[in-house]
Amino acid sequence: MDQKSAFRKIDRKIYIMFFLVIAIASINALISTLTIKKSHQVTSDLVNNTNPSLEALTKFNLLVTKSKMLATNWVYLPANSADKDSLRAINDAVYIELRGRTKSLMGYWNDTIHVNKMNMLLPSTMN
Question: Are 86 and 70 contacting, i.e. CB atoms less than 8 angstroms apart?
Fold first, then answer.
């Protein structure tokens, strides 16, 4: 009888440890699933909103630099019609397309201060 109760205690300990391992594995799976979902959301936001916004703002920076260079050339080299045509093309097409793309991306921005600043910098119509 003594040997049977010893086996029962060992069996009980084995079952407890088995269920404990199962519980730990289940909790780990749940935490991992939640972490993966959160990571997926962050990655999706980065790919769909942050990177395109950063790219558009970088293009705006390059556009401003190029426009400054072409305007300076227009003033100091008045006979250079190629630079004048390039500046007109920027103002007539490139700027408008980039402004529209940036404004559509601004709808996904969480920072209203930056959105308001960009709305002041990028009016809907040019005066």
Answer: yes
Summarize pLDDT for 64-114 with one digit per residue, the tens.
999 999 999 888 888 888 888 999 999 889 999 999 999 999 988 888 898
Domain that residue 76 falls in: 2-121
Tally the domains of the chain: 1
60 in a structural domain:
yes
pTM: 0.69
Which of 95, 103, 105, 96 is closest to 61 using CA atoms? 95
What one-letter code names the amino acid at 73?
Answer: N
Helices (H) and strands (E) in the chain, counts: 5, 0
**For residue 71, what are the contacts with CB-CB under 8 A and spacing of at least 6?**
87
